[in-house]
Amino acid sequence: MEKEEFKKLLKARIYNWTIRLVKYLRILSRAHDRVIWVIVDQLIRCGTSVGANYIEAIGSPTTKDFRNFLAISLKSCNESKYWLAVIRDTSMDASDELDWLLREAIEISNILGKSVSTLYKTKNKAG
Description:
Layout: H1 3-28, H2 34-58, H3 63-89, H4 96-126
Helix pairs in contact: 1-2, 1-4, 2-3, 3-4
């Protein structure tokens, strides 16, 4: 698969994950529990940041900017995994949707992590 096609497919995958996350959090936030609201607030910020920073990365004019925005997207995805696991492990929710969101976040994180790692290795060899 060529690089541009890969970027396009990953962009769509991240966008789909973000949409499902937002819908899931809207439902979860209906609970009248302050702890859930705080976690939802954190998760909506980091979760939507994954896609926003990925978009910034693919639109970056330089390799350095691309690498930096991709790294931020990875960090946001890792934080999202953390909060989704907290929801699961504290029994706030045990739905199939939560399982899917966490699995997909893990896969997206692995893809972003590999990309960031490759970019930093390339940087270190060149510089």
